[in-house]
Amino acid sequence: MNTERPADALIDLAQEFRDALRQSVYVLRRLDAHAELSSAQLGVLKMALDGGARVGEIARDLGVKVPSATEQIIRLERAGLLRREADPDDSRAVRVLATAEGRAAIELADRRRNERIAAILATLGRDERDAISAALPVFHKINRSITP
Amino acid sequence: MNTERPADALIDLAQEFRDALRQSVYVLRRLDAHAELSSAQLGVLKMALDGGARVGEIARDLGVKVPSATEQIIRLERAGLLRREADPDDSRAVRVLATAEGRAAIELADRRRNERIAAILATLGRDERDAISAALPVFHKINRSITP
DNA sequence: GTTCATACTTAGGAAGCCTAATAGTTAGGA
DNA sequence: TCCTAACTATTAGGCTTCCTAAGTATGAAC
């Protein structure tokens, strides 16, 4: 006998999903712990590659307000990882560009983190990796649905 | 021709996984945004149900250091959502217990968040929900592998 | 050429987390 | 017994990241 209405099953899945979200925060903290670049900084810096980006674009992409992005940008600029310059098309705007050091820092930080995760993924069974692989796009889709 | 060695495929999956982690942080921020209780507080408060928990247990379970747990506990105590009392078995320890208001707050906060997620899950196809469902345990397993 | 909108910065503040130092309690060995 | 080492929690101080509100400068539109 089915005592569970469909709605309840959805709520249960939602609860599990939320638990996974919460865990993700802890995992990301661990991953950031002894790193030279935090995930937040890495996110900003990556936007500054390939022709750079405007401050507002960076903020939008990272899901934060403009002042928060400015703060990170200033910090990274002081560290010599990116530079700011006036946007030639719009003097109100500021273009943010990664320096050579910035690019090197991204490369290093990304590689270290990816290798650490990859080592864990390597211990999984093929079916487990497939499960992750199949879920990531859906995960992405769900996350996009949650707007401010 | 297969130009991709297995190791590269793992690194790629690791990168995608990391992107998902990063997004999770943003999602959780959105979810917390106008909530009466933050996710961090909700986590602490949930540990204080069913006979309560010691400060150290709470910290361990939530993946933070003891002083961080203490801080949350004090905040929640001031809000009247939990109370602290001496552990009868060990006078060094402190037992943390949710009050009736605390239990009500958990119930409300959980319900609101779960309903919001469930509404999004409801828009997915069955195969997409299945993908999420299958991946969550693996996700959990990976997260447990990443230790400080 | 005002006026309104846009882009960013500055200022101030809150939430969370951390380490180091402290106080009190327990437990174990001389 | 008593002394020391280990453990539990709190306090103090500091960092990061985020936010809102207010200010400056530029662009666009009438």
Task: Indicate how many domains the architecture of chain A comprises.
Answer: 2
CATH class identity of the largest domain in chain A: Mainly Alpha
Which range does the strand content of chain A fall in? 5-15%
Q: What value does the Rg of chain A take, in angstroms?
A: 19 Å
What is the structural class of chain A? mainly alpha
Give a description of the structure.
The structure is a homodimer of 148-residue chains. Chain A is mainly α. The first copy, chain A, folds into 2 domains: 1-34; 37-145, Arc Repressor Mutant, subunit A. Chain A has helices at residues 6-33, 39-47, 55-62, 66-78, 100-121, 126-145; strands at 53-54, 82-86, 94-98. Chain A is globular. The model of chain A has no long low-confidence stretch (mean pLDDT 93). Chains A and B meet through helix 1, helix 5 and helix 6 of A and helix 1, helix 5 and helix 6 of B. The structure holds a DNA duplex (30 and 30 nucleotides).
In short:
Two copies of one chain form a homodimer. Chain A is mostly helical.
Strand-helix topology:
The structure is a homodimer of 148-residue chains.
Chain A: H1 6-33, H2 39-47, E1 53-54, H3 55-62, H4 66-78, E2 82-86, E3 94-98, H5 100-121, H6 126-145
Antiparallel strand pairs in A: 1-3, 2-3
Helix pairs in contact in A: 2-3, 2-4, 3-4
Chain A binds a DNA duplex (30 and 30 nucleotides) through residues 29, 38, 40, 54-56, 64-72, 74-75, 87, 90-94.
Which features characterize this protein?
Arc Repressor Mutant, subunit A; mainly alpha; globular; 148 residues; 2 domains; 3-stranded antiparallel beta sheet; DNA-binding; homodimer
